[in-house]
Design goal:
- The structure holds two protein chains of two kinds.
- By secondary structure, chain A is an alpha/beta fold.
- Chain A has five helices and six strands; from the N terminus they run ααααβαβββββ.
- Helices cover 25% and strands 19% of the residues of chain A.
- Chain B has one domain.
- Chain B has helices at 2-51, 56-60, 65-75, 83-95, 100-113, 115-124, 129-153, 172-204, 208-211, 217-231, 238-244, 250-262, 265-275, 277-302.
- Classes of the chains: A alpha/beta, B mainly alpha.
- Chains A and B meet through helix 1, helix 2 and helix 3 of A and helix 1, helix 8 and helix 11 of B.
């Protein structure tokens, strides 16, 4: 069991597969814990047959006990290979507003005619920036399509702080794209924010900012499908 | 009839499929995320078993619970892990002769007030140092109160001693290796149970439901406390989630931060595994109630 779990942890720590579940910073500790478990397994194997369990009937030293359950995540990982969270999980969350109310730092410089930014940053600036830094700027955002209310679609991205269990969906509404898009199709969207007055206080808002698309390009999903920004900045 | 039933099961299949995928993703994520911390915890536990002679800690620590419990709570500040690490360490401390009340106070305090968690909280609430102070105080208070209550009312036989019995080896290295192995398998197995429970709650209970109660002070605090139990987020990440639950009052979010590292479905499962069921059914409700009250009191004072 130690061997199996250790090998899996080491593999996850060294491969990109773990990015669907945890942020990249967790990979070195994961690999290290894999090595520790493998060393432990090697030591156990070298020690030969285990000492007989204590005669009191419990014998927790030698038996696997609850430890056999550790095979379950390994099996799920190998057989199902669960994908990164997508449009289904996004549809189950209330819309998030990023960022504190206030003013945001100036936009980054445009690259190839548009300012690249994360979905989290776009949502934060659109909802809360009192200086409306997005107004008039052509921006480029990457995300996956998720079905919208009014027949159109939204562009969504999960923001992950530690692991997928704490993922939060950030979404913006895409207007002006004539083609229908399949849920979970990854898209690179360039366009401009449809200005609305910024919220002056944090509200349990169900408002999603609107991006008027000028060009939409289907793309391959990125290696790391999550964003890891704090309030998008 | 048959057609209706057939089409309904087809529909159920179509709906279930992405839900199951979400469930597996969250389940696997929690286990992967917790694994390095669990390994750290069982290594510390193994080192305690191999290097610290039985009874030495009992002699070194203050004898009276009124002194030992707060000291143990404060000592929690030095274990820079999340809550998965502290359960096996607390079990081993108790087995090495630390009074149960003190070991439990350590277990509750360590994942909430260590420097890594406090820094993460400060980053998640920029410009609000009072949130960090409130979290530190409320979590320490929770651990001390629970420890003292346990020393008054708790009974030693509720803890299943056989579960953390030391596996003696011929050499120090063998004791170390066998303790680490036994602790890892036991705590790890129960971690899997907890992760499955948390994934089920996350994948099948709609979160927008929560937003409906955000306005009511007490109801919001209670709901965020329950949310912390259900989500089982690592204590090093929960501050970011609390920061993003903006529609809730700050006091309620403090409840989320104080309850999360002390009691959640994954922790309860691990405590069942390490201390036994009779312990966990008493300890979890006690901790939940104390944590909610402490967080609200400190929140009222500081926030």
């Amino acid at each position: 069991m130690l061997l199996v779990v250790g090998a899996t942890a080491l593999w996850l720590g060294l491969s990109d597969a773990s990015l669907a579940y945890v942020r990249a910073a967790l990979r070195p500790p994961l690999a290290a814990s894999g090595v520790v478990l493998l060393l432990l397994a090697a030591a156990t194997l070298r020690a030969g047959p285990r000492p007989r369990p204590a005669p009191d009937g419990h014998g927790h030293g030698g038996r696997l006990g609850a430890g056999w359950l550790l095979i379950l995540p390994v099996l799920v990982l190998l057989l199902v290979a669960p994908p990164a969270l997508g449009s289904y999980a996004a549809s189950r969350q209330a819309p998030r507003g990023g960022g504190p109310v206030g003013t945001f730092p100036p936009l980054a410089d445009p690259v190839d005619g548009a300012v690249p930014m994360t979905v989290t940053e776009f949502v934060g600036r659109a909802l809360y920036d009192q200086r409306r830094s997005l107004q008039g700027a052509r921006v480029r955002v990457l995300g996956f399509a998720t079905p919208g209310d009014e027949g159109g679609y939204r562009l969504a991205r999960f923001n992950v702080f530690c692991c997928a269990a704490d993922a939060e969906a950030y979404e913006l509404v895409v207007r002006g794209d004539p083609s229908p898009r399949q849920p979970d199709q990854w898209l690179l969207v360039e366009g401009r924010w449809l200005p609305e007055p910024p919220l002056t206080r944090i509200a349990p808002s169900s408002r999603r900012p609107v991006l008027v698309a000028e060009s939409v390009t289907p793309v391959r999903p990125p290696t790391d499908r999550y964003e890891h920004s704090l309030y998008g900045i | 009839m048959v057609v209706a039933l057939g089409s309904r099961s087809l529909l159920a299949d179509a709906v279930d499929h992405p839900a199951l995928q979400t469930w597996s993703t969250i389940f696997v994520s929690i286990v992967i995320q917790a694994l390095p911390f669990l390994v750290l915890g069982v290594l510390v536990s193994g080192a305690l078993a191999a290097l610290v002679p039985a009874g030495w800690l009992a002699r070194a620590l203050p004898r009276r619970d009124a002194v030992a419990v707060p000291a143990a709570g404060l000592a929690g500040a030095v274990l820079p892990g999340c809550e998965c690490a502290s359960v096996p360490v607390a079990a081993r401390l108790r087995e090495r002769g630390v009074r149960p009340a003190a070991a439990l106070a350590f277990m509750l305090a360590a994942p909430a007030i260590n420097p890594v968690v406090l820094v993460a909280t400060a980053v998640a609430f920029p410009g609000r140092p009072e949130v960090v102070a409130a979290r530190f105080l409320a979590s320490l208070l929770t651990s001390v109160v629970v420890g003292l209550v346990w020393s008054r009312l708790g009974r030693d036989e509720w803890i299943d001693r056989a579960r953390s019995r030391l596996v003696e080896g011929d050499t120090r290295w063998q004791s170390f290796g066998q303790t680490v192995r036994a602790d890892f398998l036991q705590a790890g197995g129960w971690l899997v149970v907890g992760a499955m429970a948390a994934a089920t709650l996350q994948a099948f209970v709609p979160r927008p439901l929560l937003d409906a109660v955000a306005g009511n002070y007490l109801l919001a605090a209670l709901c965020l406390g329950l949310l912390a139990v259900a989500l089982a987020i690592c204590s090093e990440a929960d501050a970011f989630v609390a920061a993003s639950l903006r529609q809730f009052p700050l006091d309620a979010r403090l409840v989320f931060l104080v309850v999360g590292p002390a009691v959640d479905v994954k922790l309860v499962a691990m405590q069942v595994g390490v201390f036994g069921r009779r312990f966990a059914v008493r300890f979890a409700p006690l901790t939940f109630a104390v944590a909610v009250v402490c967080a609200l009191l400190v929140g009222r004072w500081l926030l």
